[in-house]
Structures
1.
Amino acid sequence: MTVRTRVAPSPTGDPHVGTAYIALFNYCFAKHHGGEFILRIEDTDQVRSTRESEEAILASLRWLGLSWAEGPDVGGPHGPYRQSERSAIYAAHAEELIAKGHAFKCFCTEEHLRGVRKAQEEAGGYQGYDGRCIGLSASEVAAKEAAGEAWVVRMKVPREGVCQLQDRLRGVIEIAWDQVDMQVLLKSDGLPTYHLANVVDDHLMGITHVLRGEEWISSAPKHQLLYSYFGWEMPELCHLPLLRNPDKSKLSKRKNPTSILYYERMGVLPQALLNYLGMMAWSMPDGEEVFSLESMAERFELDRVSLGGPVFDLDKLRWLNGRYLREQLDADAFAAAVSAWALNPAYLRSIIPLVQQRVTALSDLGELTAHFFKGADLKLTPEALASKKLTSEQVVQALAWGLWQLEALRTWEASSISEVLRQTAELLGHKTRDFMPPFFIAISGSAVSTPLFETMEVIGPDLSRARVRAALEVLGGVSKKQEKRWREELERALRAPAE
Ligand code: GLU
């Protein structure tokens, strides 16, 4: 049997370091066994998926040095590798399950489902779908369809007993069937949900081992059931531990930059980041901390994966990156790394429109553009962030609200950044010209600098947020209690106009 693994990112945001970590482990496992690693795009969420995100994910994984034998960009014998192009396959498989009696058409309206949820919650807890449409006869189904009622396809799930799953790292996992909902497989628009598409594709693409994040354990009973309904052999499951913040909470962009693009902009070398991700939940048998992708693949063994929550720690990453910069590069390779990082035509080109009208000699550029070549810490002081118009508490609140709004922003463009910050100023009752200066300082380190929103667009969402976060820290930060109160106030203020 040829080992075949895959990474299956959903293109709904910036390329996440967690995706790279999962990809790396799948890559090493496949290579170690002389197998193949492939890439599939899971864009079943039509609203949140974008082509830009897909391109950024692929580019980031390539930047790290990972490659795949099959994928939407390189093709392959099991394509298409983008789920949005495989709708007919999923619809046919949903039909097959209905025909075999393992799934059924459900005509329940949103309103009915809301009522069920409410009644169950009042009676002690949500139990999931109530099974109302399971018993519909063929003629009842035909009549409803003829009347134009919308339907979805749901899978049947036992209501009693316990599902036993085999996980390569965790042994047998037991989950009671009454904890598993009768999952919708096909939505009323005819498109699949993650569960159906994932199982069908893993089977059709010949995947033998599924290495994925532990957040998917609760979905595994549905998947196991689907494999048995189809009569297919299930790939071996291996749920890897999630990356964590230093405080052990799940790695999230609220606490730490999570985008690969951030680390690229920071000047972390791709081979150092990949090496660091390799140290998450795994270690070389000889304890060596600096290792290449090839040597990791050569020595990789799943049984050496440890389940304790691996901490993604920026200081440790910096330490490792420093070792690469000092020990692994000769002067020519170092110079090449600097060009690849920021002294390259593409990055310079994105900065030029912001400075061209302000210079009389090219040597002005050093001072004018320094903030495009720095990390999150601009060495600010509280005095530098002080405002003439706002009290220090108002400055902290402005930066905090602005940061939370920027965290929720989906399209990172000067115009959308401008819009959301202006809106925040308005919600706080500040004039834009009083509200913006602390952001200028936080982003560029000086009140007289390149245009704020365009600068933020160029340095990217994670570095922009990290700088605002750093400015907040310089001002003493926001206490947990204060954060809770302000977040509630912000939520209320955002809802207000609609009420
Ligand atoms: N699309 C899922 C994700 O974004 C893949 C989960 C899986 O590997 O089954 O993580």
2.
Amino acid sequence: YPADQDILRKAMLEAYQENKPLDVEYRLHWLDGKLRYIAMRGKIIENRQGNPIHMVGVCWDITHRKELEKALQEQQVSLAHVARLNAMGELASTLAHELNQPLTAITNFTNGCLLRLKNGNFRVEELVTVLEKTVAQSTRAGAIIHRMKNFIRKGELYYETIDLNSIIQETVTIMRYDPAANAVNIQLDLTSSLPKIEIDKIQIGQVVLNLLRNAIEATHQQTLTNEPYIIIKTLQQNNEICVDVIDNGPGCPADLSQQLFTPYFTTKKTGMGMGLAICRTIIEAHHGYLTLLPDSPSGGAWFRFCLPLEREINAAAKQLVD
Ligand code: ADP
């Protein structure tokens, strides 16, 4: 095969002049006209005077191996592409999902302001408070993009020592501006004097928001004879602080209890199926756990996440176990 003639010539010359073993691969046109890959290994045999007299060696057809290598290479390239696309897709849908929440809050706040302005029925202090909340939400949206990007890329968290109850209260306040939440009775059962805990405030806030949003959507799903309600509870048990989100919606079938946490699993028409998967990732990054508990007291869903009080100790213990 013309393009490979030089390769073969050079290898033979080196073997001859430098008395090196011959080891070369090249292509040639077979008798049927097809191109085949050949491997050649050989050695120059010298006479007693050290002059080359002939060469011994083998040639064999490696076309099949070459074809397999090429196919494998192509597969690896397309696999790498799929992995890249997947990572991008996940990042995009995570961001879309998380941003949905502050954007909803901003829409609700500004609509509220507009309505009051149009009616001429407002107190300036009231508008200022709502607009301040709007600013806080757009700052939050920015922080989500920034932190989510870092978190997904490098798994980074920004720890602060904080009271978990305050995050819950803040989140519920945000949700109260959502008209969908107004129809639901959200009850807080927060254990006072909980020890402060080292967590990423924004990420844990996202988890509470996701669970609460799911609970609200669940209570809207069916016509309930009872009033729709949600209970958010905090409790300390052993060396951890737990948060329960209980609703009296239709609940989740037990056989789906693990599937719910896998990315893209959704039973909703417009769902993305990322909420619980993100929640679990965030909680596990805090060395905690998120689970769906059976036998909900409300007959609906009962989600619980727990965070260790002593993160460092737990991390070290986990490493030992691993
Ligand atoms: P999405 O809300 O976009 O569907 P999630 O990951 O948040 O994504 O939830 C996955 C699925 O888990 C939901 O589609 C729903 O079937 C189920 N689920 C989550 N929370 C509840 C709940 N409180 N009650 C009943 N089912 C729930």
3.
Amino acid sequence: MGSLQETNPSVWVATTPASSYRPLPGPLDTDAVVVGAGIVGLTAAILLQQRGRRVVVVEAGRVASGTTGYTTAKLSALHGLIYDELAQAYGDAVALKYADANLAGIAQVAELVDHYDIACDLQTRPAFTYTCDPEMVDTVRAEVAAARRISLPVSFTTDTDLPFPVDGAIRLDDQAQFHPRKYCLGLAAAVAGGDGSVYERTRALSVDEDDHGRCRVVTDRGTVTADHVIEATQLPFSDKGGFFARTYPVRSYVLGVRVAGAPPQGMYLAAGSPSRSVRSAPVEGGELVLVGGEGHKVGQDDDTARRYRALEDWARGHFSVEAVDYRWSAQDYMPVDRLPFVGPLAPGSPRVLVATGFQKWGMSNGSAAAIMLVDRITGVDNPWAEVFDSNRLNVRQSVSDVVKENADVVKRFIGDRLRTATDRSVDELALGHAAVLTIGTERVAAYRDDAGTVHAVSPVCTHLGCTVTWNTAELTWDCPCHGSRFDCDGHVVQGPAVRDLAPRDEAG
Ligand code: FES
């Protein structure tokens, strides 16, 4: 969701043209509506089209303007440390299906790139999970053993092309990296060039399903009726399934830096803390090193700008950095039981389908999710569907985490409402600063921009009513409960909220 972000555009956004699909012109009827033009939505749309379905894609912002445009864009089945944990929690069979789904997701990307001849810098690369902590080596070895048990061809090594020594690493060959926005623009063109349609600047507001097997997606530009709906909006916005309570939002940060010498060619993720991600990215005139990390729960850091400083310090301590060309951040949803949710929105909504909780691995998980959803719509058995079942109840592992995450949300909901800055007035806001103030009898989220103009909106998130907090790095109001984000004038940048923050009079 959202428009192309201008405060800190990613290298993917900055190096591609703004797409210009027109908004939905009015009411339409079709076979399937896909809400969201990121990797899940567009992959599902093109696969549905290949299976003879008429598809309409509606996107609130622009193609790949959400997290797909702000990822590190690794296509890998090596997800840090996950297989030992999955195997211990659910058994090797579940770990195997998770790996198989992600490998199939990667293969799906390669197939679509080839079929539609999409120039998106797809490069085969080895993936590594490494540690520089001797005490983590046994954990890394355990992950190697778990992955090998399910036939994932990993190896233990201390040999990497990072410019610093590591104490141990897991290596998985034949993974890939790419330019996600070029890829999505190629998919969108293929959808629009076939029997499908892509509409941008069209915000879906509600979805319902009648008793006769028809669905209605109401947007701010008209209503689309269809046999099936896919909510590919990262977190479903019509959340009858309560996914906001089974996931939690995390923001993380990326720098695109130029370094002296050749960048590492592997794709890396550090095990343990601090978590750091490294990969190269081809750009005009050379290659960047993308350095990522500093993840934290959305809306729960008073000084997000320091995250960029921490990443830059780390980059300069480990590489010969010549320049920092890009900085951006992304938002991901973490499932409380370590498995994404893919399938019906709720038990009583079999035709409205969702995919969420990709735990920062949305390129491979998202592509796999699209395959699963399209299989479901077209009546094809899918071997991974049960493991990713959106309505599963893995209470064994997750109930305490669900309780913990929701207790955290309740704390934010109540505590933030009580906490107000009654002793400050708008006049005291310095240039470039923001705060939630009490003006008269009203609470106001106020931001004074660098030109001195005050932007005042309601601090009450339009999703479920938590109080937003200011994000100093991206200049947005972020909701600590389920991750909705709004610009300084209250416009929705990111769901699950679909309505803007109400404007407020700065004078009260
Ligand atoms: Fe749910 Fe704000 S995102 S209350």
4.
Amino acid sequence: MLVMKFGGTSVGKPERMKKIAKLVTETPGQKVVVLSALSGTTNTLVAIGEHLLGNRAEAAEAEIDSLEKHYQNFVEELYQTENFKAIGREIVSRFFVFMRLLAAGQFDDKSYRELLAQGELISTEMFYQYLQEQKINARLLPALHFMSIDENEEPELEKIAGRLRPLIASLQHIDIIITQGYICRNHRNEIDNLKRGGSDYTASLIGAALQAEEIQIWTDIDGMHNNDPRVVNKTVPVSELTFDEASELAYFGAKILHPSTIVPAQKYNIPVRLKNTMDEKAPGTLISNKGTSGACKAVAAKDGITAINIKSSRMLMAYGFLRKVFEVFERYKTPIDMISTSEVAVSLTIDNTRYLNEITGELKKFGSIEVDTDQTIVCIVGQRISGQKGILERVFKALHDIPVRMVSAGGSANNISILIPSSFKKQALLALNEQLFGLI
Ligand code: ADP
Ligand code: ASP
Ligand code: MG
């Protein structure tokens, strides 16, 4: 069993959808094909949802109208026969009637999440009908029948496996099983999602649930690059990564993978292969438990970080102090990314600022608080990198003109993390590219 996930750009144009139909048909054996929404759709659905929550019905309607036109054009190009063009038009009209119904009703958070789910629901239905037109034997398996998260928004892997295995067993004669990425049901049985970029996570959860041979993530680039290609011009693909390395890169901003993708794959030791839909011959990146050690593999950056500094000459050395600090973050379900301590102060970083005011309000009991927003974590990743001789010297040589706010090395053997103001991100990534990879 293979899991093949295709992202937004891979399904974003009719000719790309046709190409992936060919690709999955030519790949031997049974596979679960996980599809995202067409590129740009989820962004538009977010915009529509925000308009509706903000009572801007007209702006929402204008967005819905232009999205509908996009889909109407899409189906005209996707299907060849009049028969299937009519099926395509029916799908589009049904989805947009439903979206307008959602928009016209009492629009709350629940309807918002239902609206966000429409992108993957429509893309998979259109793709399934395209395979039907091509007389390719396939089935559409609704993700909402098996994918679920608990009250802490964590996927319920065992329950997912318990539901999915019998479904797949009943489809043994079907080679191509299509399902939606990103969407799931929550503990109230409502439609929910695995957060932006979550289709990668769907693929790895399915891979783990079915103990697949391999999880393939097909996207618009030839694998994980050594640096962020959106920021740095000269980047190169990395051919192999360990699960730990890939996990750190995904968590710290390498957008090619949803931050949690590697976790289920690593748990069941299922290799994850990153491949390029636009260039299927390119080797891509293989992520597995076998990895070359002693190298600096890649750099990633995570924006939107807030640093909180707690200064307390009285309390920091007292035992139990850090526990009290951590308990505040735990109460507000806010994960901490980086931490550094001295005798009189502790600095922590968070990316979820939903409860920032409540958290700082409570931390004030312990000392004086300073908050810095618009920070970026730059993360340098490689097997056992933090123990490598001379690595810190090279990193700091690259960053000598940049005001470094925090450093964390040694916490994880595979990463060195540096906190800098976001305005210095580009400069830092370029300098590290030159100093660590010789790429100018
Ligand atoms: P998809 O729609 O297929 O899920 P994404 O846009 O989510 O695709 O992810 C692919 C994008 O991730 C690439 O186009 C690239 O700009 C970005 N990216 C960020 N960091 C990296 C990296 N280190 N290596 C490769 N791609 C990266
Ligand atoms: N369509 C969703 C998003 O844009 C999920 C994904 O593409 O992975 O976030
Ligand atoms: Mg993605």
